[in-house]
Structures are given as C-alpha cells and as structure tokens.
Amino acid sequence: xxxxxxxxxxxxxxxxxxxxxxxxxxxxxxxxxxxxxxxxxxxxxxxxxxxxxxxxxxxxxxxxxxxxxxxxxxxxxxxxxxxxxxxxxxxxxxxxxxxxxxxxxxxxxxxxxxxxxxxxxxxxxxxxxxxxxxxxxxxxxxxxxxxxxxxxxxxxxxxxxxxxxxxxxxxxxxxxxxxxxxxxxxxxxxxxxxxxxxxxxxxxxxxxxxxxxxxxxxxxxxxxxxxxxxxxxxxxxxxxxxxxxxxxxxxxxxxxxxxxxxxxxxxxxxxxxxxxxxxxxxxxxxxxxxxxxxxxxxxxxxxxxxxxxxxxxxxxxxxxxxxxxxxxxxxxxxxxxxxxxxxxxxxxxxxxxxxxxxxxxxxxxxxxxxxxxxxxx
Length: 377
Prior knowledge:
Layout: H1 3-11, E1 14-16, H2 28-32, E2 38-40, H3 53-56, E3 62-64, E4 85-87, E5 108-110, E6 131-133, E7 154-156, E8 177-179, E9 198-200, E10 209-211, H4 212-215, E11 218-220, E12 224-234, E13 238-242, E14 248-254, E15 257-262, E16 268-270, H5 280-293, H6 309-312, H7 317-325, E17 329-330, E18 337-338, E19 341-351, E20 354-361, H8 364-376
Parallel strand pairs: 1-2, 2-3, 3-4, 4-5, 5-6, 6-7, 7-8, 8-9, 9-11, 10-20, 16-19
Antiparallel strand pairs: 12-19, 13-14, 14-15, 17-18, 19-20
C-alpha cells in the first residue's frame, strides 16, 4: 500500500488526487475512507470504479471524476446515499448510468462533454437536483419527465443536437438559467416559462419562429433590429402541409422565399376560412386545466402543481396525460389554454435569429377579434 495515500486518508476529509495517472481508484480508500467527504480525482486514466465504493465511503458528499475513461458505474454506486455533487464530465458515457437515478440526494450532476444520445425518463426521480449540465453531448430530445425535477435552477443543454424542448420544461418553477445555445431547435415551447428564467438560444440556425407569449421572455444573445414583433404585418399566404416525418408544418411565402415552419407535436392548426368547433376533449382539457391544475399560470407561478392522485381517479387517462403534459399554446386574445385545436397567424419578427412570430388563437371568434385588432392597430 501507498503510505502517502494512507496518511492523506488518516488526516484529511477532502482528498485532492488530481493528475496522478491513477489507472483505478486506490484500494487504500476501501480500508481508510469511511470519513472522506470529498474526492477530487480528475485528469487520471480510470476506466472502471470498484464495487466496494458504495460500502466503504458512507460519508462521501462530493465526487469529481472529470477527464477519466469511464463509460459505466457499478450497481453498488447507489449506496452512496449522501452524495450531493457528482461530476462525470469529459468521460466516455454514451448513456446516463441507471444507478445515477437512485442517488436521490443529488443536487448537482455534471455529464457534459460525453457522447450521450438520450436522457432516460428516470431523470424525474432526482427531485433534489438543482444543477444539471448535459452540454456538449449528442442529445436530440429531452423526456417529458424533466418537469419532475422541481428544484432545478440551472440547466445546461448547449452544444447538443436538440430539435425542440418538451413543453413540460416550462413547468420548472425554480428554473433560473437555461442554456440551449448551439443546437438544432426549430422552435421554443409556445407556452411561456412560469419561472421567467434567463434563456440562451444563440446559434440555433434552424430556429425560425417563436410564439408571441414565448417571445416576451428573458432571451439573451439574440439580435434585435427594433420592435420584437409587428402584428400588423401578418403573413397571410401560408398553407398547412405534412412534412416528411408526418409532422404538421406551415408553408410560408415571405419576400419571395418559401419557408417551412415546424409546429409542435399534437397541435392541429385550422385555417381562418374553417369554422371548426373545438372537440369535446379539447374543451374538457381547457376546463380541467383551469380549475384543477393552474388557475392563472401567467400571473402566479406558485399555483403550478401536479395533479393529486385522488384527482386522477375521476379523470379519463387521456385527459390526465394531457393535463400532465400541459397546454400546447395560449390564446393571444382571451388567454385560454390550447391543447390540440388552434387557429394561427404568422407575423414578422424583428429578431434576426427568429424571423417569424406565431400567434395562437383558441377559436374562430378569437381569431376574428385578433385580426380586427391587428388591422386597426
């Protein structure tokens, strides 16, 4: 055994073992590590962690393993019940190890600079998580269950391949900073974030629209050329089309060029010429959401809540799922929540990175009122 390491373990609770060319976690820890609270073991060549970690390090709260060669964690890792800070960035993870989701005391999880392609739905089990860094990976989607991380304050998603953000992300009531820069986002969630976070969406070159409500948020690193949106300049020459992946799109002809605007999944747009009555399901969703979930989400974010299990007993499963997912948009005229059925207007935005602004309307009567307002403005 290494006497220097043993002396460290006997005299210190915080170990600084960075850049020592370790090929494995020193075995001295398994004998003398019961009092260790923090371990910094960055810039080494560790490929695997030993199973004895969970049993031998009961006091461990902070573990920094950046710049190693890890690709998985042992099942016994779940025994680190006091672990609050875990840095696994700059390793070889292609997915988040399942054992991480059993660390219910985690407050900070850093998985940046790996090759992670998807985030499991079990992320919602980390209800104490305040800081989550998934930047510089290969993520294309986030799970809807992200909203279960109710204490999340900082979320770093920059430098991935995200196509869109789930609408449930807007329900994170504690969120203060969201970095979604350098992705492939087609749009932002049409519903505004209830916590009003600072949002970085720079270098999303496929981002070609934003809803009116979402546009009035704390967006940073975007280019403004004047007013955010000119409602009097509506793009009336648009048509609905089906994209290659089956997703509904709006085809807009603007300044002689044709652009496709990808719409949120599950949101069906009606043309102003249609006089379509919202379905009974749509009306039920609106009433249930207003009375059960969030009576006034735009004025009081504290009203945000999950559906109580007792409430769920009396709700059909489809309505229950849609309420958990939340509204797809909000009516610009009457502020009603929109789940599936909407009218739409496309206006010009004066933000260089977001050329179009979409205005969603819950009914034909609201659409008529909107167009009367925008034409007379």
